[in-house]
Amino acid sequence: MKPFAIYFGITQLCNMRCPMCITRGHKAGAPKMELTRREIRNTILKPCKDLGMVSIAISGGEPLIVRHTAATLSDAVKLGYSVYLATNLLKFDTGMMKKIFRILDDEKHCIQVSFDSIETAQMNAIRGKDVFFDVVNHCMELVSLREKLNVKTPLVGSAILQPNNVDSIIKTIDYVINELKFDKILVQQRHDYPVINIDNYKEQAAISTNRYDTAMNEKLVSASLEIAELTKKDPRVELAKGEVKDWVALYNNPTDIKKRCEADNMIFIDSYWNIRGCLFGEVLGNVKPGGIAEFLESKKYTDFLKLCAVCNICTHGCS
Ligand SMILES: C[S@@+](CC[C@H](N)C(=O)[O-])C[C@H]1O[C@@H](n2cnc3c(N)ncnc32)[C@H](O)[C@@H]1O
Ligand code: SF4
Ligand code: SF4
Q1: Cα 154 to the chain's mean position, in Å?
Q2: Which CATH architecture group holds 5-310?
Q3: Lowest-pLDDT range, 105-119, 158-172, 282-296?
Q4: 3 state SS of 235
Q5: Cα-Cα-Cα-Cα dihedral of 117, 118, 124, 127, to 10°?
Q6: Phi and psi torsions of 168, nearest 5°
Q7: Closest CA relative to residue 8, chosen from 279, 281, 285
Q8: How far is the CA of 77 from the centre of ligand 2 (A)?
């Protein structure tokens, strides 16, 4: 199957410092580099549309610190994409957010906001900075702005289950949907893979099995089962991705995960023009010289599809 979605890190830079972060650029101290609005439109959005892609996740880094994010969202919507904006909401500019709401005024689009814990210290530890009160206030402003503008954009909270929030995850889920009044909360598992390839994926799965001590593993499994129960009672709570037995497998032995890897649905592009086949994969190509159509025919991408067919060590929602 050909990829139908793009995961685009519009910047690798960020105003938070999450120790868990899967975005490598800013952690590695990479220099600032962003594609211009025109480059994004002409080298990513248009060619991918011509290749039949229908949805785009605009992520990062932090997309709301980029000046042309709203304009790029607008270009994507005009080209017919369903747009998923993933933000930490530490920066909240009412004028920009009004624009974004008007651009994404349809139930097929979405704004996803990271909200990992209702406990101040836990959230700050996960996000690597003192961000809790700003994020809470901005979430409230976001919900009330949507109401005021009377737009349809769904608002989804996202929490990454990990040792730092395992004690508060159930209260956090309740807070996001019942107090903040987001439409949904998506709970994902923390993944800690380095660069995955055909030669190391089994070894990395084995290393991941020993990430936590037995007591923490049990706590994480028990919280996962509790969240899975919640999903049965409340459709606003969602496990990303797949079934809870796969979540348990990620803690106990990732190679037991049964969910097929779906990374071949998407291509992952960053603000340095790099293309990868999955969030944890190697850089396989570059948008600039040959373009995306050529990339999809390349040996590197074909080899990645072979990895994707046998590697099943993630439950990550983006894969
Ligand atoms: C890389 S962030 C970019 C968007 C924005 N800066 C944010 O944090 O929401 C996209 C998503 O990846 C999640 N994420 C970051 N590190 C992760 C990890 N190690 N495992 C699973 N999800 C992770 C974030 O919580 C967020 O939901
Ligand atoms: S806010 Fe998002 S991009 Fe920034 S460090 Fe955290 S997970 Fe990474
Ligand atoms: S399971 Fe898929 S998304 Fe995860 S590392 Fe393997 S190829 Fe990448």
Answers
A1: 16
A2: Alpha-Beta Barrel (3.20)
A3: 282-296
A4: coil
A5: 30
A6: -115, 0
A7: 279
A8: 25
